[in-house]
Amino acid sequence: MMRTRPLKVALLGCGVVGSEVARIMTTHADDLTARIGAPVELAGVAVRRPDRVREGIAPELITTDATALVKRGDIDVVVEVIGGIEPARSLITTAFEHGASVVSANKALLAQDGAALHAAAEQHGKDLYYEAAVAGAIPLVRPLRESLAGDKINRVMGIVNGTTNFILDKMDSTGAGYQEALDEATALGYAEADPTADVEGFDAAAKAAILAGIAFHTRVRLDDVYREGMTEVTAADFASAKEMGCTIKLLAICERAEDGASVTARVHPAMIPLSHPLASVRGAYNAVFVESDAAGQLMFYGPGAGGSPTASAVLGDLVAVCRNRIGGATGPGESAYAALPVSPMGDVVTRYHISLDVADKPGVLAQVATVFAEHGVSIDTVRQSGKDGEASLVVVTHRASDAALTGTVEALRKLDTVRGVASIMRVEGE
Amino acid sequence: MMRTRPLKVALLGCGVVGSEVARIMTTHADDLTARIGAPVELAGVAVRRPDRVREGIAPELITTDATALVKRGDIDVVVEVIGGIEPARSLITTAFEHGASVVSANKALLAQDGAALHAAAEQHGKDLYYEAAVAGAIPLVRPLRESLAGDKINRVMGIVNGTTNFILDKMDSTGAGYQEALDEATALGYAEADPTADVEGFDAAAKAAILAGIAFHTRVRLDDVYREGMTEVTAADFASAKEMGCTIKLLAICERAEDGASVTARVHPAMIPLSHPLASVRGAYNAVFVESDAAGQLMFYGPGAGGSPTASAVLGDLVAVCRNRIGGATGPGESAYAALPVSPMGDVVTRYHISLDVADKPGVLAQVATVFAEHGVSIDTVRQSGKDGEASLVVVTHRASDAALTGTVEALRKLDTVRGVASIMRVEGE
Question: Where's the ACT domain (chains A, B) (predicted)?
Answer without folding.
Answer: 353-426
